[in-house]
Amino acid sequence: MASYRLGMMAGILLWGGLGMAPARAAPLSDMVGTLNRAGAHYALQAAMDSATRLHAPCAIAIVDRGGSLMAFDRFDHVRPGSPDLALGKARTAALLQRPSEETEENTDNGRVAFVTAGFMVLRGGVPLKVGEEVVGAIGVAGMKKENDVRIATEAAEAFAREAAAH
Q1: Domains of the chain (ranges plus CATH)?
Q2: CB 132 within 8 A of CB 161
Q3: For the segment 7-48, what is each residue's pLDDT rounded down to a tens digit?
Q4: Cβ contact 63:70 at 8 Å
């Protein structure tokens, strides 16, 4: 055992004595954009404005890139399940970095793994992007899936324009 320790000490001293460090082929982290409170509230307000124009009461959830809730609002008289649906749609869009409409289409075509993995496979979730980077997502749940998609898409587009302007 003593010879093992001596060998280890010699190896450590030799490695350090030659000024060598472990080789690093690539950086150990990336700079990642994050959705902040102001951005979440901007997207939420854009969605509320769109829903008001369409006379489409709904629940709206904004999440960060990891799917954590950052902002939420709902109109009066939406269905009791709409808040949970909105959050599920937003989380799905953020974690898969694509609109939840695609997961619905995939599931309709037989790819049921999305359901078993706990993703919401309904239209109305859209990623929020700064350039090409997904920083969060919006989920909308109201009475009509066409309105959900339109409201979420319009809000995501407004967010992207505002982000590009800064």
Answers
A1: 32-165 (3.30.450.150)
A2: no
A3: 555 554 444 555 555 666 777 777 778 999 999 999 999 999
A4: yes
